[in-house]
């Protein structure tokens, strides 16, 4: 009973059907091969009767064998069809099938009943332009491409602006320019000991050593402000510009201007180090330059400035002003020779520009106010006439100031010549030319010993009408002949200038040495005349003079009888001549005797005898 149950099924298992089909296909092919006298061991011959032939499967469908001997799939198409028993319901039923024909790779669809297509027609077998667009001559949609491109550019630009704005706001908030007073090493520049220490500290810094000890911070006992003009900040020598204000309001515009000044970098611009905003020591720090200001250099009579020196200084000044005028600062506003400083390499740098809001509304002491008021000597007439001139000045006003500085450099007789006129006189003459018959008052350029094109340039710079003044680009071209002796290589120029300075310094040292020797001879002669020769010689040798005792000496005091009456009726010069002639006569007399003159005080004459 069990065997009957296992061997006989109402439905044949699919794997059993497939095994049956395989055996029957092989048996049929082998029979045909043997009928044609083929060997049963020749698999290739047997395979020829298997491939590319249909057969009926025991499972009830037809199967097509391809050229490789693989059975092609037998697929049916199912679709929703109305139920015959209940038309309101639909069921999935076969509506078509695929048949394989010999010689065709693709099967053929055989429709057995109508298909209710959604759109009325069967869908296309492939897209209109093919699966890869190869069946259409497609043109790019330039409008969409342009839109995408514009969107990408706008996104990138917006991202850049957002990043830059964030970074800029971060700079404003960080206050990178702020300096703490405790980080400053301050020195009194007018105190001898402090000055000596500062010079030694400068040498230490230049040699790569940082000062070991901090000098005391010296303050004004009244205002509490530090009085130092120079100091050290993080190992750098700095100049300290005091701002006489009680407090500083760090507005956005002020912080913005601080960043602008801090980011300005040019070889002829003195770098801005930072600023201290802690009352009462509100100040601005800039890099210290060893040779001082241009004004100091021009006043140094021992320093010979030849054409190369002058050309280098003027070229540096012009290049620095071009940079300022083409920057966000736009103008200097307080250009003068004391605001042009010279570093150790004899390169001129411009300082004290910008930060007008920071410096505004100051209340300096009278001596500082008087010193700063001298800036009027370089100020343009149109700015001098205004009650409230713009703090940042104007570019044409800077050109006028440059003309005055050029006169200073070429003449070395001050900004307005010799004798130096008073500030009030210059202000009155420059502001009110109509009070003097329309005569325009300017420095005496005709007294200068320089080429005419330089005189013409400075006269164009200080024209009364600002529209008639050139800009610095034109000035640079105008003074091109002056700069013709300079090398294009900055290093070569610096070497040449340093060589000339060294030669000039040797000449100055030689002159000073000769003067020292002359003064030494005068001192020796004076000692020999004032003291006994043995005593004078001991002093000249630097030896200690031992006191001597004598058994008998004679001390003589003389007096001029009636000297008071004579002085009353004589002029001071007559009194001096009288005493000079009288004492000269006495000196010539005692020179023949063993007599030594001790001193003369007024009309008293004291001599000693017996010292030998």
TrEMBL record:
InterPro entries: A/G_cyclase, ANF_lig-bd_rcpt, Cyclic_nucleotide_synthase, Kinase-like_dom_sf, Nucleotide_cyclase, Peripla_BP_I, Prot_kinase_dom, Ser-Thr/Tyr_kinase_cat_dom. It is a single-pass type I membrane protein. The keyword GTP-binding applies. This is guanylate cyclase. GO terms for biological process: intracellular signal transduction; receptor guanylyl cyclase signaling pathway. It is an enzyme of class 4 (lyase). Coiled coil: none annotated. Keywords: cGMP biosynthesis, Glycoprotein, GTP-binding, Lyase, Membrane, Nucleotide-binding, Receptor, Signal, Transmembrane, Transmembrane helix. Residues 554-612 form the Guanylate cyclase domain. The gene is Csa-Guanyl Cyclase 4. CDD domains: CHD (cd07302), PK_GC-A_B (cd14042). It comes from the Eukaryota. Its main location: membrane. Its EC number is 4.6.1.2. The chain crosses the membrane at residues 145-163. Residues 199-486 form the Protein kinase domain. GO terms for molecular function: adenylate cyclase activity; ATP binding; GTP binding; guanylate cyclase activity; peptide receptor activity; protein kinase activity. GO terms for cellular component: plasma membrane. The keyword Acetylation does not apply. It catalyses: GTP = 3',5'-cyclic GMP + diphosphate. It is found in: Membrane. SMART domains: CYCc.
């Amino acid at each position: 009973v069990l065997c009957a149950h296992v061997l006989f099924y109402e439905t044949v298992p699919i794997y059993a059907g497939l095994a049956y089909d395989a055996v029957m296909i092989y048996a049929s092919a082998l029979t045909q091969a043997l009928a044609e006298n083929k060997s049963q061991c020749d698999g290739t011959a047997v395979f020829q009767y298997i491939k590319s032939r249909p057969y009926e499967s025991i499972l009830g469908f037809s199967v097509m064998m391809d050229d490789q001997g693989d059975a092609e799939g037998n697929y049916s198409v199912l679709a929703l069809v109305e139920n015959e028993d209940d038309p309101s319901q639909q069921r999935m039923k076969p509506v078509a099938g695929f048949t394989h024909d010999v010689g065709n790779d693709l099967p053929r669809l055989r429709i057995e009943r109508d298909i209710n297509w959604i759109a009325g027609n069967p869908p296309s077998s492939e897209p209109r332009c093919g699966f890869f667009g190869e069946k259409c001559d497609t043109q790019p949609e330039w409008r969409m491409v342009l839109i995408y491109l514009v969107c990408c550019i706008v996104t990138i630009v917006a991202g850049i602006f957002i990043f830059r704005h964030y970074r800029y706001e971060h700079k404003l908030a960080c206050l990178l320019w702020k300096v703490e007073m405790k980080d400053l090493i301050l020195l009194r520049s007018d105190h001898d000991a402090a000055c000596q220490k500062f010079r030694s500290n400068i040498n230490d810094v230049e040699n790569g050593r940082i000062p070991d000890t901090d000098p005391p911070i010296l303050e004004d006992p009244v205002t509490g402000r530090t009085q130092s003009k120079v100091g050290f900040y993080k190992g750098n020598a700095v100049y300290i510009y005091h701002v006489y204000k009680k407090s500083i309001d760090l507005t956005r515009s002020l912080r913005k201007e601080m960043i602008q000044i801090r980011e300005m970098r040019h070889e002829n611009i003195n770098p801005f180090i930072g600023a201290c905003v802690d009352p009462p020591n509100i100040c601005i720090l800039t890099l210290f330059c060893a040779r001082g200001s241009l004004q100091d250099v021009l006043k140094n009579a021992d320093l010979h400035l030849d054409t190369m020196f002058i050309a280098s200084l003027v070229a540096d000044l012009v290049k620095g002003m071009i940079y300022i005028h083409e920057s966000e600062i736009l103008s200097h506003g307080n250009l003068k020779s004391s605001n042009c400083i010279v570093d150790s390499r004899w390169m001129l740098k411009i300082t004290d520009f910008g930060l007008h809001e920071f410096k505004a509304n100051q209340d300096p002491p009278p001596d500082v106010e008087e010193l700063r008021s001298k800036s009027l000597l370089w100020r343009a007439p149109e700015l001098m006439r205004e009650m409230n001139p713009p703090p940042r000045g104007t570019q044409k006003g800077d050109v006028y100031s440059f003309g005055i500085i050029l006169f200073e450099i070429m003449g070395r007789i001050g900004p307005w010549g010799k004798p130096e006129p008073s500030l009030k006189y210059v202000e009155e003459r420059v502001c009110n030319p109509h009070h003097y018959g329309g005569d325009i008052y300017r420095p005496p350029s005709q007294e200068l010993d320089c080429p005419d094109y330089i005189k013409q340039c400075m006269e164009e710079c200080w024209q009364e009408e600002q529209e008639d003044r050139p800009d610095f680009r034109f000035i640079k071209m105008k003074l091109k002949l002056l700069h013709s002796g300079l090398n294009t290589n900055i290093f070569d120029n610096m070497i040449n200038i340093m060589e000339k300075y060294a030669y000039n310094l040797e000449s100055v040292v030689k002159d000073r040495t000769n003067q020292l020797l002359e003064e030494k001879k005068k001192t020796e002669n004076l000692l020999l005349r004032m003291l006994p020769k043995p005593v004078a010689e001991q002093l000249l040798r630097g030896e200690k003079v031992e006191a001597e005792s004598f058994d008998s000496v004679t001390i003589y005091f003389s007096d001029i009888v009636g000297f008071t009456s004579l002085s009353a009726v004589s002029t001071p010069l007559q009194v001096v001549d009288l005493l000079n002639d009288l004492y000269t006569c006495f000196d010539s007399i005692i020179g023949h005797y063993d007599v030594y003159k001790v001193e003369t005080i007024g009309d008293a004459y004291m001599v000693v005898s017996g010292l030998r």
